[in-house]
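Worked example 3 (structure in, sequence out).
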């Protein structure tokens, strides 16, 4: 897919930005086009499609940022980049200055560079800056312009230097024998953090860090909303409900009924938004620092037991923010493990909207402590589900791509990413949930909601759940924050249920199916047959695991 960021009525000189993962192509692209919307985070595979825009210093030069190459596996991203390497276009090779020789040798071997117009940008100059003599030697050997830069700090003079290199691009003629004379890379670059190298404690610490990434935002959101909710009820909701209670029945039911836009919609905003915001803060920080890759690499041996690699865990982590974005990010996985990765995302990655909804439900039922076993069970069963339905081995895949640096936070990148999370919630997620509230109110008013309850009754009866819980089960198929309709009547339904019933109901509504938007995205990415297969297997796993859970809770209570 080629997303054009800007158009102009001039003839372009197209320049392709090509390089391995995590070399800083997206940061360079953003600086050269002067557009915040091209900003990419410090995480492997941050570019999941080809982005195109003109350079802001020279509108006649069209830059195309391509996904990072992963020569160790047959990923969708790598194939997309290879498909764009057309004849006649200038190529700007982007490599790390710390590993210039190794990356150029790999690009020379894997790509057909002979006869192509090439310029080179060596990034991470802040990590390693070669002497002027070494820089001259590299350019004399390669006979193409080479520029050393730090993509996080590019003033106009540095950008002009890159533009001169592009204009002076030369036909590539370097051979493998010439490449051997390039200066060797600095030793011990991109090593795993020492605390994660410990044989047993390392993976356990990685699990702790991973858990903390989501536990801390959830705890913070819970404490914030627990303090804020009584204030909002007293000074905002109660006066509104009192005023609107005198309105005509249909209008009052739409606004302040059991599924009202105001009564139920406030639950969504109060509980979902803080979770979305704080999880966005945590994931943005860890991406910018670069620690996510170190965590996933540490857990790589364990993940191979269920048919995944450490690389596949990154989209799963992204799924706790948004499942749809995570499915797109899985393009960086091998074609052999991508379905397994997406399957785990659909089942075990509770998106931030789902987390906010379940936290609200458990709080309304006065059992907020249930959230911890709920989220642990979700991921545990998700891992088992992935292993049972996807039996291929991941042992043949190796991680030869280097780890990102642990570095300071780029606050501009951090705030841009966070603002995107906020906009997505306010402009997409919240309106959709309000539509769900509106539809539920209309269906309830005209009596159709009772028909849905009748259709869901056999499944609910199987787990000894009340028929009134059917709307929560049904609307969770549309979006996971549709779970919030279980808060109807200001939590009266939940108060009439036992703790085990509440836990099973929330688990079923969370796992019986991925939301329709996620299933639609999987269908577009992997095919509708695969989407239906993933959905059917997930439904079966959900019902079987819920039945085992119900039996276990019966004997425990």
């Amino acid at each position: 897919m080629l997303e054009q960021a800007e158009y102009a009525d001039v003839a372009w000189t197209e320049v392709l930005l090509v390089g391995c993962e995590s070399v800083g192509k997206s940061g360079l692209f953003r600086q050269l086009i002067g557009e915040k919307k091209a900003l990419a985070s410090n995480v492997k595979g941050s570019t999941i499609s080809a982005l195109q825009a003109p350079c802001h210093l020279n509108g006649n030069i069209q830059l195309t940022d391509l996904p990072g190459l992963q020569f160790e596996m047959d990923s969708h991203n790598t194939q997309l980049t290879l498909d764009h390497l057309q004849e006649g276009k200038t190529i700007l090779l982007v490599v790390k200055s710390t590993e210039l020789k190794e990356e150029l040798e790999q690009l020379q071997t894997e790509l057909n560079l002979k006869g192509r117009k090439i310029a080179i940008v060596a990034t991470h100059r802040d990590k390693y800056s070669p002497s002027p003599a070494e820089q001259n030697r590299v350019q004399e050997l390669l006979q193409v312009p080479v520029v050393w830069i730090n993509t996080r700090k590019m003033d106009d003079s540095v950008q002009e230097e890159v533009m001169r290199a592009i204009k002076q691009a030369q036909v590539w003629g370097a051979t493998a024998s010439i490449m051997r004379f390039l200066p060797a890379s600095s030793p011990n670059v991109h090593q795993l953090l020492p605390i994660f190298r410990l044989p047993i404690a390392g993976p356990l610490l990685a699990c702790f860090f991973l858990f903390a990434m989501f536990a801390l935002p959830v705890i913070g959101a819970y404490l914030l909303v627990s303090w804020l909710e009584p204030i909002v009820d007293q000074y905002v909701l109660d006066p509104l409900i009192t005023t609107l209670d005198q309105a005509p029945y249909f209008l009052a039911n739409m606004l302040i009924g059991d599924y009202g836009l105001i009564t139920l919609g406030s639950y969504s905003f109060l509980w979902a938004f803080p979770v979305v915001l704080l999880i966005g803060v945590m994931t943005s920080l860890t991406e910018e620092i670069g620690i996510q890759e170190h965590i996933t690499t540490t857990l790589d041996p364990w993940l191979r037991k269920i048919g995944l690699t450490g690389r596949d865990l990154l989209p799963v982590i992204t799924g706790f923010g948004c499942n749809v974005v995570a499915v797109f990010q899985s393009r960086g996985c091998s074609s052999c493990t991508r379905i397994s990765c997406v399957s785990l995302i659909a089942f075990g990655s509770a998106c931030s909207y789902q987390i906010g909804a379940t936290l609200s439900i458990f709080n309304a039922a006065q059992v907020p402590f249930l959230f911890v076993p709920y989220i642990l069970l979700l991921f545990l069963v998700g891992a088992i589900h992935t292993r049972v339905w996807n039996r291929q081995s991941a042992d043949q895949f190796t991680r030869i791509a280097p780890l990102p640096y642990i570095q300071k936070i780029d606050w501009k990148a951090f705030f841009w990413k966070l603002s995107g999370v906020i906009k997505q919630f306010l402009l997409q997620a919240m309106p959709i949930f309000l539509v769900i509230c509106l539809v539920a109110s209309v269906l309830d008013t005209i009596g159709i909601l009772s028909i849905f309850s009748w259709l869901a009754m056999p499944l609910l009866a199987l787990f000894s759940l009340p028929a009134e819980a059917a709307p929560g089960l049904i609307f969770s198929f549309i979006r996971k924050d549709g779970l919030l309709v279980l808060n109807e009547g200001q939590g009266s339904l939940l108060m009439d249920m036992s703790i085990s019933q509440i836990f099973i109901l929330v688990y079923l509504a969370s796992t019986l199916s991925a939301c329709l938007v996620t299933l639609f995205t999987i269908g577009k990415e992997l095919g509708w047959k695969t989407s239906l297969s993933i959905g059917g297997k997930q439904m079966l796993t959900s019902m079987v695991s819920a039945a085992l859970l119900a039996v276990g809770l019966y004997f425990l209570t």
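Notes: DSSP finds 23 helices and eight strands in the chain. Residues 1-10, 37-45 have pLDDT under 50 and may be disordered.
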